[in-house]
Design a protein that fits this description.
Layout lengths: L1 H4 L14 H5 L7 H32 L1 H4 L9 H4 L4 H22 L1 H19 L7 H21 L5 H26 L3 H4 L8 H24 L1 H7 L8 H15 L7 H7 L1 H20 L1
Helix pairs in contact: 3-6, 3-7, 3-8, 6-7, 7-8, 8-9, 9-11, 11-13, 13-15
Length: 292
């Protein structure tokens, strides 16, 4: 059970970005066999990214085990608590990375290249880049963009540049939100846990949350109104889902700045109003894309 815990299965929800291209690429509109193949490829990419992310999480927990012991919640993680040895965790990290790369090679070679790039970038993040203010959030956001691009690669669809930029801005928003939540929870001890938190202030992060959320919403509107979107879906009605997008963004911002949750994953998993808004947005999008 401890070995499953260090893989952080709750954080696998982040990899749902892989399915964005499957839905927005209109793959559900094909024949039964085409849908099964496309969905199977997307699920395969999702599993590969889950294993790759787990490899990185384990590696990061090994590097951060001393700092995690100072955190009120993360001190209970198996590696920080000493219930899983560093050696065993290292072996598991390597196994997860290897299985992920081999599985992605079986699916699509391009996916293997993306996952190898993701693992390399995240290892560099764990070793160096997470100590550089702002760049730490930029690297995390690039990792999410790689998930979205990977989903497009495995199902063989074009992904709009507006959607990529929207994903990047949205993930910057989530990353800054996590920093804001950490400061709210840890207060004066925040810098001892994460070095970059010493450079952030609640006011600066509030400004960054405003800028990135505004950029994400603007890019989504531009994507919804783009001529290519009209040609693909036969409608620009996705723009009318903007109120739901605004609700989800504002709900996230309001809750995360109070420090109620440790980060975006905890909020998404436990906050019912946000869940309702997000599910409603997804269902309306599917209705517009496939039944317009």
């Amino acid at each position: 059970m401890k070995y499953l815990e260090i893989m952080r299965p709750a954080h696998w929800t982040k990899n749902v970005f892989v399915f964005a291209a499957f839905i927005f690429g209109k793959q559900l509109a094909g024949t039964f066999n085409e849908v099964v193949v496309a969905f199977g490829s997307a699920v395969g990419a999702f599993v590969c990214f889950c294993l790759a992310a787990s490899a990185v999480y384990i590696f990061n927990d090994i590097i951060d085990r001393e700092a995690d012991r100072l955190h009120p919640e993360k001190r209970g993680r198996p590696i920080a608590a000493g219930t899983v040895s560093v050696g065993a965790a290292g072996v598991m990290s390597v196994v997860c990375a290897a299985v992920s790369l081999l599985g992605s090679l079986v699916l699509v070679r391009g996916l293997a290249v993306i996952i190898a790039g993701y693992i390399g970038l995240m290892v560099l993040y764990s070793l160096v880049l997470k100590r550089v203010m702002i760049l730490d959030c930029v690297v995390i956001s690039i990792g999410f963009c790689l998930r979205a691009v990977a989903g497009a690669v495995v199902v063989g669809v074009f992904i709009s540049p507006w959607l990529v930029i929207c994903t990047f801005a949205l993930c910057m928003f989530l990353a800054f939100g996590k920093r804001r939540s950490e400061i709210a929870q840890l207060r004066e001890d925040s810098e001892s846990f994460r070095q970059t938190l010493g450079g952030y202030t609640p006011e600066l992060l509030a400004h960054m949350l405003d800028v990135t959320s505004g950029l994400a919403i603007a890019c989504f509107v531009l994507y919804a109104m783009d001529d290519q979107t009209l040609r693909l879906f036969g409608t620009n009605n996705l723009v009318y889902t903007t109120p739901l997008v605004l609700y989800c963004v504002f709900r996230f911002s309001a809750v995360i700045q109070k420090g109620k949750y440790a980060g975006p994953v905890e909020l998404i998993v436990h906050d019912l109003p946000f869940q309702i808004g997000f599910v409603a947005w997804v269902l309306v999008c599917i209705g517009i894309i496939y039944f317009a």
